[in-house]
Specification:
This protein is mostly beta strands. It has three domains: about 5-200, Sandwich (Immunoglobulin-like); about 205-340, Immunoglobulin-like, CATH 2.60.40; about 360-485, Cupredoxins -  blue copper proteins (Immunoglobulin-like), CATH 2.60.40. It is built from three helices and 33 strands. The strands form seven sheets. A seven-stranded mixed beta sheet has the order 14-13-12-16-21-18-19, with no helix packed on it. Strands 3, 4, 5, 7 and 9 form a five-stranded mixed beta sheet that branches. The longest helix has 6 residues, at about 5-10. The chain starts with a helix and ends with a strand. Mean pLDDT is about 90; it is low at about 1-45. Monomer. Pfam families: Cu-oxidase (PF00394), Cu-oxidase_2 (PF07731), Cu-oxidase_3 (PF07732). Its EC number is 1.16.3.4. One of its GO terms (molecular function) is copper ion binding.
Length: about 500
């Protein structure tokens, strides 16, 4: 049974995760009213392969670049897209088609490219036999288009989402947010990249076009027969995927590339390094840094993003440069295969951050578990399990607030924190300066047990209800989510 002791053992503390075994979930398809939704599917229909699990041979498959979704209508002010939600299959292990879910019928959804000041209209049709939705993670959108956990696209129905793209250029992503099923749906493939391009960045002359590449990293677990295991100890998710492929290679020219790295795992922290060199980090969740930073390591918890530039001109043609993770080891190999001209650059000044306005409200957000004898723990924020109809914070539109985000869980347990609608700035971590990975505009940050992180946000734009939660989605599934309402 799941209790305090084996919860802390589950997942392996070195991996910084917490296991939520599927055996303790209510029966599949039954309501879980204590947590505001349906329980995640265990995806038993994936049990279609019997035999020996195919062996993963590193560097034998190329890393695909997800296709860019093409609009069905394009005008000077807006672009209209169609996107399906489907059950499909994907070749994750070599030679084996695994049942998955996908936006546009793809295991890694198509990339949507938007422009600042130009609207995106997204017509989403659900072809599955269960409800799902779309949340634009990091998007500044009205509440009815945010993908609220209760705002679902039912089977066979079509839903219109409107994204104004009023924010500056940034690497965002879209994923399912149907409460009670969000963890399983995202794990099974309902996610894709959403890139907001800002014309004001053109003068910077950063790498662009074919040299601007999204990389979605995540982990996954297979059983001995090669079937996908949805909920088990997350430490057993030992296979790491880059754009849906385990240990792929990616051919590059000897020039600068911009990589938009997105941690789409439901419960993992990546600690990334480049063999034989550093990366130049130029941006975070909400867009460009004020200035580039040379980094030996990039740390991303679930949902976080990093824009980095790697200059392959320093490597001879024929070189092989590997991206590694502190736990998983080698994740992705870059093969330098040719020379190329390179008009791009990384200027010393990127986008100065605006001055912080004065804060008028202080709040506290505490993420932790409530353990119960022989039962699944509750994930809570400030001692409360998420309820759809409860408002936890009421915020006046236009005000600037300071939130002290912390976790009072025992040592070894990790969470993170994601705030919908707005980006924030990290002011302090544990009473001292922010970590390098806290820099820039953020919407998601890591919060280890015993840590305190002070952030500041200005709630401009819309009125209505939005959620904030732990973005380890197995944690939000068991209640670690709360709701704010912005009022005039």
């Amino acid at each position: 049974m799941l209790n305090r002791r084996n919860v802390l053992a589950a997942g392996g503390l070195a991996a910084g995760v917490l296991g939520v075994p599927k055996l303790l979930a209510p029966a599949e398809g039954h309501e879980d009213p204590a947590h505001g939704g349906h329980t995640p599917t265990t995806f038993q229909e994936s049990k279609t392969f019997s035999g020996t699990k195919p062996e993963i041979v590193p560097w034998t498959r190329p890393m695909p670049v997800p296709p860019v979704l093409r609009p069905v209508v394009s005008t000077a002010k807006q672009e209209v897209y169609r996107l399906s939600i489907e059950r499909t299959t994907a070749e994750i292990l070599p030679g084996l088609q695994s049942p998955v879910m996908g936006y546009g019928g793809q295991f890694v959804g198509p990339t949507i490219k938007a422009k600042t000041g130009r609207k995106t209209l997204l017509l989403v049709h659900n072809k599955m036999d269960e409800a799902a939705n779309v949340h634009l993670h990091g998007g500044h959108v009205s509440p009815e288009h945010d993908g609220h956990p209760r705002d679902l696209v039912e089977p066979g129905r079509t839903r219109l989402y409107l994204y104004p793209n009023s924010q500056q250029g940034a690497t965002l992503w879209y994923h399912d947010h149907s409460h009670g099923t969000e963890a399983a749906h995202v794990y099974l493939g309902l996610h894709g990249a959403y890139v907001v391009e800002d014309d004001s960045e053109r003068h910077l002359n950063l790498p662009s076009g074919a040299y601007d590449v999204p990389i979605m990293l995540r982990d996954i677990q297979f059983d001995d027969s090669g079937n996908i295991v949805v909920f088990d100890d997350p430490a057993k998710r030992t296979v790491v995927l880059a754009n849906g492929v385990p240990q792929p290679y990616f051919e590059v020219a000897a020039r600068k590339y911009r990589f938009r790295i997105i941690n789409t795992a439901t419960q993992r922290v990546f600690q990334l390094r480049l063999t034989g060199g550093q990366v130049t980090r130029i941006g975070s969740d909400g867009g460009l840094y004020a200035a580039p930073v040379e980094a030996e390591e990039v740390v991303l918890s679930s949902g976080e993003r990093a824009d980095v530039v790697i200059d392959f001109s320093k490597y001879p043609v024929g070189s092989r440069v590997t991206l590694t993770d502190s736990v998983a080891g080698e994740v992705l190999r870059f093969d330098v295969v040719r020379r190329a001209s390179d008009p791009s650059r990384v200027p010393a000044v990127l986008r100065p951050l605006p001055a912080l306005p004065p804060s008028t409200v202080d709040r506290e957000v505490d993420l932790f578990y409530v353990f119960k004898p022989n039962e699944r723990p509750d994930g809570v924020i400030n001692g409360k399990v998420f309820e759809m109809d409860r408002v936890d914070f009421t915020i006046k539109r236009g005000t600037t607030e300071t939130w002290l985000v912390k976790s009072s869980d025992p040592a070894g347990v990790k969470h993170n924190f994601h705030l919908h609608l707005v980006q924030f700035r990290v002011l302090e971590r544990n009473g001292g300066p922010p970590l390098p990975n806290d820099a820039g505009l953020k919407d998601t940050i890591s919060v280890a047990a015993g840590e305190t992180v002070k952030v500041q946000a200005t709630f401009t734009g819309y009125t209505g209800r939005y959620v904030y939660h732990c973005h380890f989605l197995e944690h939000s599934w068991i209640g670690m989510m709360a709701q704010l309402e912005i009022v005039p």
